């Protein structure tokens, strides 16, 4: 089987959910003997990618790989002008004529069985794929994008921000639902996302495929873990992450300051705004920014905090945390789609009081944290092993090719 994967960013290094999912999909397909090509947009703000690690280069050497630089920045003037247009500029900015031409030439020259679109930002290229290829077009939904914007709007108190987010959500929804009905098949990570699409009368078959991890990469070493310690890891250029960690820091800042929460709290990830430095308190709260090795960082800390208030899809960082046997405290929205059992392999907290009580319990009871982490690892081994997930994906491809 020949598969062409389209992405809106370079999936190297694997420092976030999107690149982890893409790269593990590629590895899984290659290991089963399928041919894979990857065409990636390279937005200027990600110009420091790709990384040059041996792991990434080894994967690149096994595939046909092309990247195309684009500029997705929007000026204040363009943003203001867009308010008077009925367009989803948030998505449209990823359309580039040069990349479209490169894709057309590839599809005219080579026959693919599957063209997989990784998320809404590469959906604008579906017309070219339809025109120049007989391949089955598969859409992987990393989030229901308009739903993320709707949930962000609900959280906002500022009337103008609420109005703007609702406007963007409405425009993205119109574009998203129209585009999804043009694909031959769709995959989602969670039953919640499947139900959302079915409620909107999406016609193509929708298959649920969980996040897959290469389990041999996740090797916890408790001798290097600081206990007690709390941590957050995530990219803050994604609005739900930024909103969630701001809520958490604002809510519990004084609890760390006055010593009621007797643990250090570490914040790490990409694109952390400078103003977050104001939260830093020596010996209590550490704003670390981007870390060289995400798994090494996760291993070094004990209790993972996932305070997502608006989101969708499945949070890969939670699945990775479970694979590393971490004790995790998450909102129910953050853990959406994971087949968890509260109190057995994760702790769910949706209010200040629930978060506080969970943190205090975990800080005081190391044995409880360790057992929760071990149970989490067992869940991931059973459901999220990339070998199992890739077998499911290939079976889905084969069914799509028959229809």
Automatic annotation (TrEMBL):
Alphabetized InterPro entries for the sequence: Glyco_trans_4-like_N
Alphabetical list of SUPFAM superfamilies matching this protein: UDP-Glycosyltransferase/glycogen phosphorylase
Domain Glycosyltransferase subfamily 4-like N-terminal: start-end pairs: 16-212
GO terms, molecular function: glycosyltransferase activity
Protein name: Glycosyltransferase subfamily 4-like N-terminal domain-containing protein
Species assigned in the record: Mucilaginibacter polytrichastri
Organismal lineage: Bacteria, Pseudomonadati, Bacteroidota, Sphingobacteriia, Sphingobacteriales
